[in-house]
From TrEMBL:
Region (Disordered): 466-490
Compartments where located: Membrane
SMART domains in alphabetical order: HAMP, HATPase_c, HisKA
GO cellular component, one term: plasma membrane
Coiled coil location: 254-290
Enzyme Commission designation: 2.7.13.3
Every HAMP domain range: 184-237
Start and end residues of each Histidine kinase domain: 245-462
Top EC class, one word: transferase
Residues that span the membrane, as ranges: 12-35, 163-182
Protein's name in the database: histidine kinase
A single GO molecular function term of this UniProt record: phosphorelay sensor kinase activity
């Protein structure tokens, strides 16, 4: 699969295009060399035959037919290897002189040239060879054939053709290998940028794309992207600082206002005024919960991975959270369906983990209709501890699942329900501290109320697998446990 993905890269396709252009250029060059070499050797052979014909014609003009026969016989005797081919016959093909016995068969050109095979069909006694000759008629009705053995020339042409074929094959193989290596080098650089970009998109904003110090195009691209990331982080930190400062500065006066409203509630005798004051106190509590959640998220994000990490029994922690919210679920006649594998340990901050688990369970209770069932499970899969909460509520559309972890983001169908859109942001911050991954999916895909399944996968504890006694958890009214007034209301 990795090789196939390599072959589909644009860099390899560009290298392949270059290989085709390069191979075509090499082929044209080799073809030109072959054409010039083979043409030169063929022309040299023809010139040799023409020279012999000119010599024989001169002998014929000076000495007649008998002189021509004599000179042919002398030349045949001087050439025991029969490199030159001669045949002189009468008009009715009766042999007068030569080193073959009969006329060869073959296509004859208009100029009298013929290519044929020296074998027993022409009375050749030696091994089969290739020959080229010219045929013309001599005055007096005689026929003359003068040629040359071109078997070595043909063999040399085959050697050149074989060399060209091998050269083309080696050229294509080297070009393909070079293209693959160049593509691999380029793809590695691009893959580093892609991997870093994906991790940054997953929330690791402190990462930057590495450079090699070569100041090439990839280094310049990486530096530009890093500068862009620095600017984005700076702007995000500015916005976050403003929102955190507002939450911090307003919490104290809002707390005073809430206390004054509560004192007013206790001092008034009129039922209508008491009801209005009670609603005002509730609204103030909701605002305080929002500010507390904002500050809590800010502390978690600045705290990073410096939390007090200790072995925590995840199944025991989830059991405590379910017991805490059991009364709230009974008010809506809901039931917990627990599937808790014992001995699932993780290394983390128990208070933060309890906050995360409580927020998710509270959300499930809020969005599960009456008489519904809330599924809670803990299990270990390979090297990961998995905590999962399932509800049968309105669910979250697929195109919004990546946005619900943003601060104050609420799904359109849940805006009428109480909440501030911060619960899942807090859950995301806690999961990130514990190197966890959050996966959202539909509990009942395709149904009108698909529900929501939230699965958090965290690295399982690899140390001693001893059970950790559960510590008492703060109640739902506290800031640290994710009270019903601090959940997201997605």
């Amino acid at each position: 699969m990795k090789l196939l993905s390599q072959l589909r890269t644009s860099s390899f396709q560009l290298a392949l295009l270059y290989m085709v252009v390069f191979a075509t250029s090499v082929f044209l060059l080799l073809a030109f060399i072959y054409w010039r070499t083979a043409g030169f050797m063929t022309a040299q052979t023809d010139e040799t035959i023409e020279a012999e014909i000119a010599g024989l014609a001169e002998q014929y003009r000076g000495r007649g037919v008998n002189g021509l026969i004599t000179i042919i016989r002398e030349r045949v005797a001087r050439d025991p290897n029969a490199k030159s081919i001669y045949l002189l016959t009468t008009d009715d093909f009766l042999k007068l002189a030569g080193n073959i016995e009969s006329w060869p068969e073959g296509a004859r050109s208009d100029s009298g040239w013929i290519n044929f095979t020296l074998d027993d069909s022409v009375g050749w006694m030696g091994p089969k060879r290739l020959a080229r000759a010219r045929i013309f008629e001599v005055q007096g009705g005689l026929r003359l054939l003068v040629g040359r053995d071109v078997d070595e020339l043909t063999s040399l042409k085959r050697v050149i053709e074989t060399a060209i074929n091998w050269g083309m094959g080696i050229t294509l193989a080297l070009a393909l290998l070079g293209g693959f290596l160049m593509s691999r080098s380029t793809t590695r650089r691009i893959e580093v940028i892609n991997n870093t970009s994906r991790r940054i998109m997953n929330g690791h904003l402190s990462l930057r794309i590495p450079t090699r110090g070569t100041d090439d195009d990839f280094d310049q691209l990486a530096e530009n992207l890093n500068q862009m990331l620095d600017r984005i982080v700076y702007l995000m930190e500015g916005i976050r600082h403003v929102s955190d400062s507002i939450a911090h500065d307003l919490r104290t006066p809002l707390t005073r206002l809430r206390n004054q409203l509560e004192n007013t509630l206790m001092s008034v005798d009129n039922d209508e005024a008491r009801e209005q004051a009670g609603r005002a106190v509730a609204e103030a509590d909701q605002l305080l919960a929002t500010f507390n959640a904002l500050l809590r998220i800010a502390r978690l994000e600045t705290r990073g991975n410096t939390a007090d990490m200790k072995p925590v029994s995840l199944d025991e922690l989830v059991t405590d959270a379910c017991e805490l919210y059991e009364a709230l679920a009974e008010d809506k006649d809901q039931k917990f369906q627990q599937e808790l594998e014992s001995g699932v340990m993780i290394e983390g901050d128990r208070d933060l983990l309890f906050q995360m688990v409580s927020n998710l369970i509270d959300n499930a209770i809020k969005y599960t209709p009456e008489h519904g069932v809330i599924g809670v499970s803990v299990r270990k899969e390979d090297s990961e501890a998995v905590f999962e909460v399932r509800d049968s509520g309105i669910g979250i559309p697929d195109d919004e699942k990546d946005q619900v972890f943003q601060r104050f983001y609420r799904v359109g169908k849940s805006r009428s329900l109480p909440g501030n859109g911060l619960g899942l942001s807090l859950v995301s911050a806690v999961a990130e501290i514990h190197k966890g991954r959050i996966l959202l999916s539909d509990t009942h895909p395709g149904e009108s109320s698909p529900g929501l399944t939230v699965a958090i996968r965290m690295p399982a504890f690899t140390g001693a697998r001893k059970r950790i006694k559960a510590e008492p958890a703060a109640g739902p009214a506290g800031e640290e446990t994710g009270s019903p007034t601090e959940t997201s209301g997605v």
